[in-house]
Amino acid sequence: TYTTANYDNLRTKITAKFNGIWPANVTLMTYFSFLYSFCYKPFLADKHNAKGVVFKANDNRYFRQADLGYYMTQNRYLYSNRLALLLEKEGVLDDIRLRISRYFDEFIIDEVQDIDGYETALRSLYAEDRCQIIATGSNAYMFSSEIATKFSGRYIEINIRSLGYEEFLRFHNLSDGHEALLKYISFGGMPGLANYQFDDVPEIKAYLQGVYNTIVLKDIVAREQIRNIKFLENLILFLADNVGQLVSVNSIVKYLKSQGSKVTNDVATKYIKSISNALIINQLSRYDIHGKRIFELIEKYYFCDHGLRNCIINEMPNVFGSIEKIIENIVRNHLLIQEFDIYVGVIPSGEIDFVAKKGDKTIYIQVAYKLSTEETIKREFGNLRAIKDDFPKYVVTMEDIVGPVKEYPGIIHIHLRDFLKTVY
Predict the structure, then answer these.
(1) Strand, helix or coil at 150?
(2) Residues near 99 by Cβ (< 8 Å), separated by ≥ 6?
(3) Non-local CB neighbours of 218 within 8 Å, separated by 6+ positions
(4) Are 84 and 120 in contact (CB under 8 A)?
(5) What φ, ψ does residue 322 adopt, rounded to 5°?
(6) Each residue of 344-401: pLDDT tens digit?
(7) 304: closest CA among 138, 415, 423, 128?
(8) In terms of DSSP bridges, do strands 77-79 and 52-54 run parallel, antiparallel, or are they unpaired?
(9) What is the CA 173 to chain-centroid distance, rounded?
(10) What's the distance, CA 200 to chain centroid?
């Protein structure tokens, strides 16, 4: 793992998992102790006589990569950010791979995106079939096309998402029911919530705010070199308040300009992409159901975890002011967990909340909190009836009574809880 803080955290959790005893078959190292003690010392200690690692930049711009001074101080301390390069320069990578395969059956790199040049590190450590390498990270574009080319057919990318409803029940030892659903709607599916009591709302908010702050500062501001932090924060608040609404970059810029944040459309587009890369939000494009084409420019945005959204906008635990937005976000995430490609459906008479496609399977979904008026029923069911194909069509609500609506045969009215427990 990259930082000593992560090292301490992992050591505490692993020890706790094994009842206070450190498992003999597990070795935990920071990234630089691994590079120095496991990789450098066995092969190069006698050659260079380094005393250790120094965590500062080399201020001497005159050294070239062929010079030892490029990698080591005059006092014989190795520059941390050039240690991996030295190992490559000295031609010991094959020896390191062999050593890894002798010592470890599995080699796990935590938060790999924190490591400068992690693509090179992964390529360097790859030990064919002799050792399984698992790299975890929190950025949507962690694996570049270069990595995909190098490991073509030899790696699997697994997307880890926040907990679905049934996973939430298992994590918290809850029975399925109305109260459990309300907890899920209010607090979301971050696994770390298992460490808190649901009646301790301030502690939960502090935890979620900490997760959010870490993502913003580390994965967005630092990584993407964001300068206008105030605009970034206002932009995230705008997207949180407008979950499930069709918005364009132009409309975002105009609104935030009225709030005192002046940026160009290009800057706003860059910031939205950065927020998406950090896995805070995803965007959905519009899909012409009849014309079978995708529209761009105007899209909808949803949060990868609706609990983070509720915390950011200070709607926790009293979420009923935004209940329809949150339910829609939850339905969308349930479809995403099942690996559907999801779009906003466009028909001449209006829109369909979700068109979900997977292989030859398609389902259409409308979402509403309650079917409290004839107008609501007509909008939700009528839009689905306008689609002239035989794929399944659902209206998802929190109504106590569900079932067929005689005026709209073939359209399934389903409670949110039942929808979230169904695999499609």
Answers:
(1) helix
(2) 38, 39, 42
(3) none
(4) yes
(5) -125, 25
(6) 998 988 899 999 999 999 999 999 999 989 999 999 999 999 998 999 999 999 998 7
(7) 138
(8) parallel
(9) 25
(10) 26
Q: Which two tokens stand for residue 173?
A: 């030892």
Q: Which of 110-124, 138-152, 177-191, 212-226 has the lowest mean pLDDT?
A: 138-152
Residue 396 to residue 369: CA distance in whole angstroms:
8
Go through 108-138 and write b for each residue having 16 or more CB atoms within 10 A of its CB, e for each that does not.
ebbbbbbbeebbbbbebbbbeeebebebebb
Spatial separation of the C-alpha atoms in residues 388 and 293, rounded to whole Å: 17
Distances (CA, A) of 273 to 126, 141, 232: 31, 11, 11
CA distance 339 to 158: 11
Dihedral angle, C-alpha 367, 246, 332, 340, nearest 10 °: 120
Distance (Å, rounded) from C-alpha 53 to C-alpha 29?
15
pLDDT digits (tens, 9 = 90+) for 70-92: 999 999 999 988 898 899 899 99
